[in-house]
Amino acid sequence: MITPKKMPSRRRSALALLLPAALIGALAACGAPEGSNPPTSTSPAPAAPTTAADPGPVPSAGLHLIDRDGRRLAFHVTPGTSPTIVLDAGGGEDSSSWDSLVPRLSRATGSRVITYDRAGMGASDEVPGAWDPQAAAGDLQAGLRELGVTRDVVLVSHSQAGEVTTYFTRANPGVLAGSVLVDANVPPFFTDDEVRRLVALTTPQIEELEKQPSTKANRQLIATADGFGPTHQAYHRVAWPDDVPVTYVVSEKTPFDGSPQDARRWRDAAAAFVGDGPRRTLVTARGSSHDIPRDAPAVVLEEVEKMTAAAR
């Protein structure tokens, strides 16, 4: 069994970039029973208590199972007005990772808030084969269209979901009013040298995972590693559309806490992404690890509120 404590720090960091949020749970529990997947948000989050400064309880989220080429995709919709806020979780996470932020966003903005489970996560069916961010973007597109959400979207993406958002934004002109990327994977980071290093650092862990009993979590880790090199070399060449405003929230510690050289490359890539086009803003989540939604939720809330207000 692989556990994080047994991994060298650089390999932990590299594997964290593949599926950062899954690292502790999936690797520490490899060989766990098939049914021991992370909890999903199929049940509505409890409403926060009402206070004098609180406008009241948040509407309950409803589960919508969308058919996509014979597969089920789980979308969770909290009613509200336009613009619609869509939250896309990091690698290895399902929609439940946003549960604490959904009621806060709904209350602060009055917007409809949508979370969803990417293929193979939560209540959504798996897709055999390697991770394909363009196919994942197609899943998101299909789900939003089925829900009637075709414009004025503020798309919020953490970590690996940055790849989905980039391809979605390019394939769906006019749909996004803006985006907030939360320590997300962006094209400038994935140079040929960086991709080769990441593949070399993570290959031993992936090979060990392949020897373990097959679980949903393990399969997603392996799928992300399968074809990682070509997938991210292609992603490195993708450009963000200039007409879509975007705020990039970078963590202070980055996914590579403990590896100063890699941490610097991550921060440099974020700065390069913001500098590569107009209408882009860089914000630093001070003191936060890569898991900004949990470490610094107020930063995410503030930036999404700003983007939503600008979209009205």
Q: Topology as H/E string?
A: HHEEEHEHEHEHHHEHEHH
Instruction: Briefly note the structural class of the backbone.
Output: alpha/beta
| CATH fold type | Rossmann fold
Main-sheet strand order equals 1-2-4-3-5-6-7-8
Name of the CATH homologous superfamily: Alpha/Beta hydrolase fold, catalytic domain
The strand count comes to 8
**Radius of gyration, Cα only, in angstroms?**
18 Å
Q: What's the average pLDDT? A: 85
Largest sheet: 8 strands, mixed
* β-strand amount: 15-25%
Q: Report the top-level CATH class.
A: Alpha Beta
Shape assignment = globular
Organism: Microlunatus spumicola
Keywords: Hydrolase, Signal
Biased composition (Low complexity): 30-53
GO molecular function: hydrolase activity
Report on this structure.
One of its GO terms (molecular function) is hydrolase activity. This is Alpha/beta hydrolase. Keywords: Hydrolase, Signal. It is a single chain. The protein is α/β, with parallel strands linked by helices and 312 residues long. It has a single domain, classed as 3-Layer(aba) Sandwich (Rossmann fold), CATH 3.40.50. It has helices spanning 9-18, 23-28, 102-109, 133-146, 161-171, 192-211, 216-225, 228-235, 260-275, 292-295, 297-311; strands at residues 62-68, 71-78, 81-88, 111-116, 153-158, 176-182, 246-251, 280-285. Strands 1-2-4-3-5-6-7-8 form an eight-stranded mixed β-sheet, with helices on both faces. Helix 9 links the parallel strand 7 and strand 8 (280-285). The longest helix is centred in the middle third of the chain and has 20 residues, at 192-211. The radius of gyration is 18 Å and the shape is globular. It starts with 8 loop residues before the first helix and ends with a helix. The model is unreliable at 1-14 and 19-55 (pLDDT under 50).
